[in-house]
Amino acid sequence: MEQTFFLFLEITAFLIFFYGIERDSWHGLLIFLSSAIFLALSLASFDIEKIYVLFNETSGAIESYSTTQYDSVFGYLNSIMGLFSIALGLIKIIVYRESMKPQD
């Protein structure tokens, strides 16, 4: 996965996570979407690809090469955030179910 797309999905997952925490209605259950994205990104962190483009001044050619790397920080961060958002989602389900019961 390319690094810019990876970071875009990372920011998207965090925004959905914070949106899900803030809402008390059924919109709060969108936190499970962020958990799915976090867990997918933890697997994708094994193959983050960077593309470098260089201009060779002597020949005038444009050369590009790509490198792949594993960033363990992203792997651990996304795994922990995925499990944390699942736990918060389960708590939100319990709270939402209790709020839907008729009051006596």
Give a description of the structure.
The chain crosses the membrane at residues 6-21, 28-46, 73-95. Keywords: Membrane, Transmembrane, Transmembrane helix. The protein has 104 residues and is an alpha+beta fold. It has one domain. It is 61% helix and 15% strand. The protein has helices at residues 3-22, 31-44, 72-100; strands spanning 48-55, 62-69. A two-stranded antiparallel sheet has the order 1-2. Helix 1 (3-22) packs antiparallel against helix 2 and helix 1 (3-22) packs parallel to helix 3. It is elongated, with a radius of gyration of 20 Å. The model has no long low-confidence stretch (mean pLDDT 89).
Main beta sheet strand tally, sense and closure: 2 strands, antiparallel
Strand content: 15-25%
Mean pLDDT comes to 89
Helix content: 55-70%
What gap, in angstroms, lies between the N and C termini? 54 Å
Using the CA coordinates, give the radius of gyration: 20 Å
Q: Order of strands side by side in the largest beta sheet?
A: 1-2
Shape summary: elongated
Structural class: alpha+beta
Task: Count up the helices.
Answer: 3
Order of helices and strands: HHEEH
Q: What is the strand tally?
A: 2
Low-confidence stretches: none
The overall number of domains is: 1
Transmembrane segments: 6-21, 28-46, 73-95
Keywords: Membrane, Transmembrane, Transmembrane helix
Key words describing this protein structure:
single chain; alpha+beta; two-stranded antiparallel sheet; 3 helices; 2 strands; 61% helix; 15% strand; elongated; transmembrane helix
